[in-house]
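README, section 4: Worked example with a bound small molecule

Sections 1 through 3 covered apo chains. Here we extend the same pipeline to holo records, where the ligand is supplied as SMILES alongside the sequence. The molecule in this example is zinc ion. Nothing else about the input changes; the structure line simply encodes the ligand pose together with the chain.
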Amino acid sequence: MGHFYTAIKLLLGLCLLTACAGQPAQPDPIRVLLVTGGGWHDYQAQEPLLTEGLSARVPEIECTVVHEGNQQADHRVTIFEKEGWAADYDLIVHNTGFGLLTGGDFVERLVQQHKGTPAVLIHSAVHSYRRAKPSAEPWFRFSGVQSMWHEEERTFTVENVAPSDAIMKSFPLRWETPVTEELYVVEKLWGDITPLAQAYGVETEAFHPVVWKHDVNGTRVFATTLGHNVGMFEQDVYLDLLANGVRWAVNR
Ligand SMILES: [Zn+2]
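The generated complex, written as structure tokens:
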């Protein structure tokens, strides 16, 4: 009997000790690589707004930044040339303007090495590798769409077409962009994308997806063509959208 109570006491003691020592478990970090730089946009100003905006909303983020090729729209980001460059990260965020890059081999390798590591594509990232020769097909398949041009810069209304989706639940049903934006004309879908928001283009007289998600053979890709001006990166609605896209992409 004595042994029994001793055992119970020991057990209770152990439980108490564990409870006292047990700090709330730290969630695993989300290792993010932000690749940014390129032409047409103020990536210098966007970078801190983006990294701080995401970290404020997803505190687990540990961000590494590769910022190269400002105002060089054909720059080849050096890390993409390294074998296995994506393997050390949980997510790659692309905020780039490399729309004059034409190296098809470079783009094919970029996509090949990306497989297995989720992506978030912001605005001109969708346009970044579209001029690859002889074919930009690997990039179109990865991003989910083919877009070669955008309508003239203006404000427009973004319509939430998936309000019950976790990414879109905090996004207004209709949101007038508070700054001017470029509506990317989506000419073709390359894959089974799930459109999350759309906007009407007055020049093309058609709706175009401006936020979507899809799964490319097991690799999650979240994309938005919104994010031309620095002012967009100061909007809670926009940063919340990106943060939700990050969480979906890494399944957290
Ligand atoms: Zn732009």
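What to look for in the output: The helical segments are 2-21, 43-57, 104-114, 125-128, 137-143, 236-249. Confidence is low (pLDDT under 50) at residues 14-18.

Section 5 describes how to batch many such records.
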